[in-house]
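CORE FACILITY INTAKE
Project code: CF-77B
Contact: R.S. (postdoc)
Sample description: multi-component assembly, two entities in total
Requested service: structural model of the whole complex
Turnaround: standard
Below are the sequence entries exactly as provided by the requester. Do not edit them.
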Amino acid sequence: MTIEARPGTPLKRGGGRPSRRGGTVLATHRWILTPWLFLLPGLTVIVLMVMVPFANTLGLAFTDSTLLRQGQYVGWENFHRMFADERFTTALLNSTLYTVCVVPCMVVLPLILATLVSGAGRLSGFFRTTMYLPVVMSPVVVGLIWTNMLDKRGLVNALFDTLHLVTEPVPFLSDRWLLLFSAMFVTVWTGLGYYMVIYLAALANIDQSLYDAAAMDGAGVVRTFLNVTVPGVRSTMTLIAVLSSVAAFRVFGEIYVLTGGTGGVGGGDLTMTMLIQREGTGLQARTGYAGAISLFMFVVLGALLLVQLAVQRRQRSS
Amino acid sequence: MAQLSPRTRTAAARRRRARPGSVARYLILVLMAVLLAGPLVWQLSLSLKGSGEPLYTRPPAVIPEHPTLDHFATVLDRVPVPRYLLNSLTVAAMAVVGNVVGATCAGYALGKLRFRGRGLATAVCVAALLVPSETVLIAQFLTVRTAGLVNTLFGVALPTLVAALNVLLMRNAFRNLPAEFEEAAIVDGANAWQRFIRVSVPQVKGVITVVAIFAFVGSWNDFLWPLIVLSDEQNYTLTVGLNRLRGTFYDDPRLIAAGTIIALLPIVAFFAVLQRYFFRGLEAGGLKG
């Protein structure tokens, strides 16, 4: 199961399973170090840039280090301070809310879209490409586009006004909650195509005879969807719930660009990643404190993953 | 295109069944396509609108009255876009080469060779996969800073130079190859390196392509890390440079739109040319398993 995957990265599943075919060749390398030479470049980068920094984060979290000064061990003080820090509680609330709102959209909407696209015959390729387009775009570009769209004088407000839906421009980018929900919308907008393509692959594996049987029973579109499609892609739904919840909790680019890098008025739209970025960089950086926030975030993401894995296991056994 | 055939058949079967349903289907699909592609069209329209043209008409006008390319010229004149593009390309090239070489070699050792410590090496890769990059951000920055690589393009490329995900993807690709070819090569007296280059790598070219493409896109679009590492405007990558468009051209959405279009062109062209690999990457990434 990958925790790294998010829109734009390839997926991998079931990594540890032994392969059906052949697998490992009888080991005939003449020199004992040969495998390690093969591993050297990759393993060096992974150890030096992931494993060592992770160990360092563990260490940092319990010190009062700053960028310019190696700190002293301070025990759990950073964590006590964290929960008294209003910006931290705001960021935690925002990231949690983000996850709670975005994940159901990412699990359900792309599935509906995939069902529609897979039945669109010759046009399905066209729709697939169009809907995937936002996925390959950088969050900065996406953020700038939607900054233009959601501005007080932007297209969205212009359309609302034309249709006489509003009397005053909606402050999408200045109101704390509206901005948060706008960013969620942008995240969903970007991710729809990605998860839809994953669902398309899963849909292709559903036995066609199940659809035929449902049709024979006179099941309508909705009942076929609920009784054939949904059970057929259940494990994919769990996978997407994991991927999208981890991605949503880590949100950065959308919020950063929509708030112009400020985190909203009074920091009301800060997220966990933004807080780490603010606390841990720059000349005033409190790296120890930022390390503690990072560690907290790691624990939350790990817990998310464990919960979802447990759900998946129960599904499999039932 | 072969893998599309079952789906197409499904479509044909369903179309025969329900006529009114398919009208609703296309209506929703077209609506979604407009929602997803519409903002891009609007940016293009904005970027082409003449300076004197009113932007805030009711209803909004999509077709520019006096189309002009002036705004693109202004953006290129006031922001060193070619410089940013070159920097982004340099970083992306490092990421592609690093991931292709590093992940292929490491994946081969983990997937095809038997040696003491293989389990441990695999476990390290899996563990690394489970560490979200944000949670080691600060420590990574301190490492890069100690190495004196802050504000360099190599420093930007370094953390994703070889991604654990790609090592494991390559490992699975090599594992799933039939053993016969390698066995035959062993009988012929080929050593591990010769078997790697001549026998196994040619069989996993598809997966290598996928790794290369996703390494390129990931690096091209990365924002948070270069934002932290780079301080000198000369070294900005495209995403970091673009981020400042909003501040520079705050008063004119036409210029911001022109900037986003310039930034979008390369990646959209890249996607258009290689799109089947994008989709293959998601499907062949092991989702069928």
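Facility notes:
- Confidence is low (pLDDT under 50) at residues 1-7 of chain B.
- Chain B is about 70% helix and 0% strand.
Invoice: internal transfer
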